[in-house]
Amino acid sequence: MTGTAVAVIQAESLRHNLRVVRSLAPGCPVLAVIKANAYGHGLVSAARILEGADGFAVARLDEALVLRAAGIAGRIVVLSGMLSTDDARFAGTSDLDVVVHDPVQVDTLERAGAAGPRNVWLKVDTGMGRLGVEPSAVPGLVARLRICLGASGNLRLMTHLASADDPASDVTEAQLAVFREVRRNWPADISIANSAAILAYPGAHETPGTGDIPPVGRNWVRPGLMLYGASPLPDKPAASLGLRPAMSFESRLIAVRPMPRGRHVGYGGDWTAGRDTVVGVAAVGYADGYPWHSSRGTPVLVNGSRARVIGRVSMDLISIDLTGIEARPGDRVVLWGEGLPVEEVARCAGTIAYELLAAIGARVVRQVDDRA
Ligand SMILES: *Cc1c(COP(=O)(O)O)cnc(C)c1O
Fold first, then answer.
1. Which residues, other chains included, contact 152 with Cβ-Cβ below 8 Å and sequence gap of 6+?
2. 11-232 in CATH: which number?
3. Is 194 near ligand 1, meaning CB less than 6 Å away?
4. DSSP state of 227
5. Domains in the chain: boundaries
6. What is the pTM of this model?
């Protein structure tokens, strides 16, 4: 009996979560963030399923080129990465939008000239302290970019929030205030909100024309995690936000063995049976992206019942305490998905849902279920 870890992707859940984004940010065009293999859900298939979005965002030029090669038309924004004039030419040839986050990239675009991209998003660091130009540099860079893009080009303004998942923090309001100043007389589109801001900061996706914001341009939102049905907010489970997990990460039991009290399980004999125990072994390990740090009691679902991981997670296998659960080799084990949120597994493993989803292993088979 063999087993293979699979990630079953529910197409309809992805589309449902996109509708949730639209209902929370009415009037805002949506850039579906599908970097990192669409958070493990499969880059090209996620793009096809989410074709109702107004565009896509990826981290790297290479990801964008893969999408174009697969025939994905429409807007694709490259969030980071244009390092050379060649990169700028690739972006131009493939009709990609690029984010400019450093003055050096303006030099690059000037060198590429008409061969470079026509759509540029100037990223301003309003307090995240990672990528972005200083607010004071914006007017000078805008003037240069306008010349470089010419009449056919389009310049948009964006920023990224550091703490939108923490409503107790005052950082987001401070960042929004800095950005409001930068965009005070901005005559075109902007973009601010990630998933957490879509869910928790309406001010990050307000329609231009409100308050002191000029009534021109649109405010694009950039959801990632919530599209996949996970919650970025620690105190708000995805289900309470109306989101549906799009991935079920599963494998199968390949052995079920009674072990007498006192027996050790796994590398280092880390776990000792305190009573007679039924131990199941499932065909999934850290090479599939199951977190090694789950060795201490992370829940899994076996035939719909909760059981716990025991002993160390190995490269290809995990052991599970199946005492009291009806189970046989071949039975399905759900690592996360419906009934077991990836956020809960992440907490047990001392990490975040983002890391677990993005780290799904290369040998995991993805199956798309598209019963609309
Ligand atoms: C990854 C990313 C997003 C999406 O963030 P989520 O928290 O997954 O919604 C949005 N904007 C930028 C610039 C990003 O890098």
1. 118
2. 3.20.20.10
3. yes
4. G
5. 11-232, 247-369
6. 0.96
